[in-house]
Amino acid sequence: MPDTGIGARVLRKEDARFLTGRGHYTDDISRPNQTYAYILRSPHAHAKIKKLGIAKAAKAPGVVAVFTGADLVSDKVNGLPCGWLVHNKDGTPMVEPPHPALVTDRVRHVGDQVAVVIAESSTQARDAAELIEVGYEELPAVVSIAAALKPAAPLVWDQAAANTCYDWELGDKAANDAAFAKAAKIAKVDLVNNRLIPNAIEPRAAIGEYDATSGHYTLYTTSQNPHVIRLLMGAFVLGIPEHKLRVVAPDVGGGFGSKIYHYAEEAIVTWAARKVGRPIKWTAERSESFMSDAHGRDHVTHAELALDGNGKFLALKVLTKANLGAYLSTFAPCIPTYLYATLLAGNYATPTIYCSVRALFTNTVPVDAYRGAGRPEATYVVERLVDEAARISGIDRAEIRRRNYIPRDKFPYQTPVALQYDIGDYHTTLDKVLKAGDYAGFEKRREEAKKRGRLRGLGIASYIEACGIAPSAVVGSLGARAGLYESAAVRVHPTGSVTVYTGSHSHGQGHETTFAQLVCSTLGVSLDNVDIVHGDTDKIPFGMGTYGSRSLAVGGSAMFNAMQKVIAKGKKIAAHLLEAAEADIEFANGEFRVAGTDRKKALAEVSLAAYVPHNYPADLEPGLEEQAFYDPLNFTYPAGTYLSEVEIDPDTGALSVESFTAADDFGRIINPMIVEGQVHGGIAQGIGQALLEGCVYDGQGQLLTGSYMDYCMPRADNLPSFKVDTNVTACTHNPLGVKGCGEAGAIGAPACIMSAILDALRPLGVASLDMPATAEKIWRAVERAKTPKAA
Amino acid sequence: MYDFNYHRPKSLADAAKLLGGSEEAKLVAGGMTLIPTLKQRLAQPSDLIDLGGIGELKGIKREGNALVIGAMTPHAEVAGSPEVKKAIPALAALAEGIGDPQVRNKGTIGGSIANADPAADYPAAVVGLGATVITNKRKIAADDFFMGLFETALQAGEIVTAVSFPIPEKAAYVKFPNPASRYAIVGVLAAKTGGSARVAVTGAGPSVFRLKAAEEALAKSWSAAALGGLKVPQAGLNSDIHASAEYRAHLVGVMAKRAVQAAG
To answer: Do B247 and A776 touch (CB under 8 A)?
Structure first.
């Protein structure tokens, strides 16, 4: 049998259908007698609705129904819930405004949902929507963090004074101030973490269906977590009991976080399917995705790092303002708080850390988790400060990191910001990346570039992330309104093949392969004899889904534990068949064996006995199927260090990324090829944030980057070939020793690229630059540096 | 998109007749701008007249000291043509840099110049090489063809049939692309013919324009150094989220020098 188990570079099982155009996505599904929904969206960032006339639209050709917010209210449909409660510094809860699926009296961002038209075709639905008469009274909009903070700023929500959702803090401020008072030097940065638009290749879609004979609803949707949607929509929005609601998330073409959340369109098509008595399909157009998928990032931060005379970090202080948009998306409040401030220790043994975060409402699309979710923001703050600390103290950038890393003998390490890192070895990872990226040879390359008229810079950044979210009790104490365990059911069929039902959801990660490899290694069955089922609440046990690089660490652990139960039961059966004591049975390579003998039964023989129990233990249930829920004991802490080199054309500001080298510690690796693919994709997204991507609104709240003509996604020709390497310290608290790799690239790359750009420009005296570092920004920085300063 | 009547005439005469028969008709010459516009419901023509079936509008031929390119010749054909590569390599290279492979195989030179997008590449070639635009009614000098933002000298019922490019001594096109759309933020075509020079700029202003100061300097001395003191005023230049007028003005100077350098 070829090696297809843990550690093998197995080609992805799912690629046969994905690469030949035979994936089965939500929009590929059509239900008998299906209708089509079109959502009328607000063209204004902020306006009162004075009039909403649907009579003409309702009479238009092919129209089945037109619904407005008033219809939802009269049917007692609730707004979309927020899944995380954050408290203010004074202990009071955050402001939690309503989030209606269709507004009734006021729109709060361009793209806000005003009405839905349901028709025989999507074209007819859209035609009719143009006949809806909306009388808007425009209100002044607040768009940016700066605008939201102005003393007389218009209010997005009347109940949110000064547009503030919460004003939160973490850490001991007095101790922090005291540490700063003793500093020999203080590094300071002011920076912006740019707002990003996720852009999964598959736009969101949803199909609602209702069976009047049984009272069953079905929702097909582009989701990363169908059970979470079932819970949020069933229990909180529509009042449908779980046994009457099935949520199916079939093949999903990328999520990056944006498909975690419960969106209005899902509730609308499910509710309206019953109203019209027919299935309803809605598929976003790309321009709708830009203005209705939750955005990411959008922070403004001032931060300081106190140093002693030897460049050791004494204290870190971070003051952040975060833009949450117009409404609270499902997990929005926890992103700039518990997934951000808790990561500010980075890879360093900084003794005291204080972070204050003020979260603001603006008339923009809601902001929520996006690949990395809080951790790219934290990494960017910390690493910009560390570079600045190196500069002001005259210490080499690699050396100052080495000097401040948490030493490998100090794990488990309790950070001053709540988390306890279980294991890590940052020094070895650094050594690896410095060697692979030829750190020592850089100055020669810089000189050579200079001869060609190019400014070359080297970037370095370390990152840590908290993945495998999360111990339910811990997140519960921090305000989560959900548990964060994962589930798996392992069904060994009579002839010994295996189907695994997982609560994790694959939307591009290759779970069908990675999980199958885990089964191969654990149960000794061949890859062809394993199928992974996910994404359907009628098939899988209650699961929390895929985000935060949690699938293998949490979902894989649940699967492993379920397989241990299978093995334990199999031992009982084998002991009976082999007429041996259960304690003497060993299981390895798919065989139950009496220890020290050649007497054995294959898994298939044992499973056959379990389903045809003619000769079977009297006190044992037939069948060989087990289930496990796994609630992690801690987060996992993948960490790494990246090196990059860029070259700048000073005449135009144009930049090219010349090299990118990554060294990551993801713990134990199941499929190195899939892991490398994840790192490549993450780095590409991180380079996108650093150089190309930035959501821009004008002062009135119109989205200026509403298409690919203006919103720049990274393309192959923006990127070098990546060099990737790994250093392995196995996670200490999950049975697989794994940590997760899905977000690392997007977390470390922005900081690394900005480090390279500032290194290239530093000889000119440029100290700061914000992302995305476009050619014009770089050119301006170069020009400013050339201008002699007034005496 | 909204409903429309679709026509695919076989001859130029039929196309002109159809075009004259409706005030709301639009020509499709590849549709690389028109179709997305229709999909977004930003235009509502009554009739679409697809020029793709008219053989006489396609092809590249040498006529004396000029290259004549049929209006319906796709960019990829210009880019790959041995004739163009030999006579005006700058034109082949420009065509090779338009959009992406799909656009280059569907989009046409006639469609591009009739649309007169301020950031399109072909207008720089038409003006920079001093081409003549040939229509079903007349011949229009390049300098008279582009009138402004999406505005040309074409009159109602007039159809571009070909563009005739005089072959220069040397020429080059250098583009600074918008990273998102890959249209030109600034594109400059510089050409030398005998003792005179032409320099055309696309992307920077509402419409393609000639850089007279640069032309005068290059007529005296064809070298990048001759443009050393070139100052491009920013007044009237485009300013948007991708590039300010000041930056565009600066880039025009840099791209002009690079074009001269590239032309050799």
So the answer is: yes
Statement to judge: residues B94 and B112 lie in one domain: yes
Which range marks the domain in which residue B10 is found? 5-49
| pLDDT of the residue at A790 | 52
Task: Sort out which chain A residues have CB atoms less than 8 A from B242's CB and list them.
Answer: 710, 774, 776
Q: Do A705 and B241 touch (CB under 8 A)?
A: yes
**CA atoms of B102 and A267, how far apart (whole Å):** 38
Are B115 and B15 within one domain? no
Q: From the CA of A248, how many Å to the nearest CA of chain B? A: 30
CB–CB contact A718 B40 (8 Å): no
- In percent, how much of chain B has pLDDT > 90? 97
Total domains, chain B: 2
Distance from CA of A224 to the nearest CA of B (A): 28
Q: Are residues B219 and B252 in the same domain?
A: yes
Closest by CA to A761, choosing from A785, A737, A742, A743, is A785
pLDDT < 70 positions in chain B: none
Closest CA to A755 of A640, A676, A672, A642: A642
- Does the predicted model carry a pTM greater than 0.80? yes
Supply A717's token pair: 């020709």
Q: How many other CB atoms are found less than 10 A from the CB of residue B146?
A: 25
Reported confidence tier of residue A1, pLDDT bands at 50, 70, 90: low
Residues B103 and B168 in one domain: yes
What is the C-alpha separation between A472 and A482, in angstroms, rounded? 8
Give the CA diameter of chain A.
98
- Give the chain B residue nearest A713 (alpha carbons): B180
Q: Does B40 reach chain A within 8 Å, measured CB to CB? A: yes
Question: In this structure, what is the dihedral angle of CA atoms B209, B212, B213, B218, given to the nearest 10 degrees?
Answer: 110
Based on its alpha-carbon atoms, the radius of gyration of chain A, rounded to whole angstroms, reads 28
Domains located in chain A, CATH noted? 31-139+201-254+259-292 (3.90.1170.50), 299-469+634-786 (3.30.365.10), 485-630 (3.30.365.10)
Interface of A with B in 263-322 (CB under 8 A): 287
CATH no. for residue B45?
A: 3.30.43.10
Chain B residues closer than 8 Å to A126 by CB: 41
Report the percentage of chain A scoring pLDDT > 70.
99
Residue A787: pLDDT band (50, 70, 90) is: confident
Q: Does A61 touch chain B (CB under 8 A)?
A: no
Task: Write down the H helix ranges in A238-301.
Answer: 264-276, 286-292
Confidence label for A791 from pLDDT (cuts 50, 70 and 90): very low
Q: To which residue do tokens 């028969």 refer?
A: B21
Same domain, B224 and B113: yes
Q: Are residues B74 and B201 in the same domain?
A: yes
Considering the domain architecture, whether residues B131 and B252 belong to the same structural domain is answered as yes
Question: What pLDDT digit, counting tens, does each position of A694-741 carry?
Answer: 999 999 999 999 999 999 999 999 999 999 999 999 999 999 999 999
DSSP A320: E
- Same domain assignment for residues B131 and B31: no
* Residue of chain B whose alpha carbon sits nearest to that of A693: B180
Chain B residues whose CB is inside 8 A of the A775 CB are 176, 179
Looking up residue B154, the CATH number of its domain turns out to be 3.30.465.10
Best residue in A127, A287, A715, A776 for a mutation probing chain B (most B CBs within 10 Å)? A776
Contact at CB, B179 and A652, closer than 8 angstroms: no
Q: Give the pLDDT confidence of B213-263 residue by residue, as tens digits.
A: 999 999 999 999 999 989 999 999 999 999 999 999 999 999 999 999 999
Beta-carbon neighbour count of residue A697 at 10 Å?
22
Residues of A in contact with B181 (CB under 8 A): 708-710
Q: How far is CA B232 from CA B29, B44, B130, B247, in A?
A: 35, 39, 21, 10
Any CB–CB contact under 8 A between B150 and chain A? no
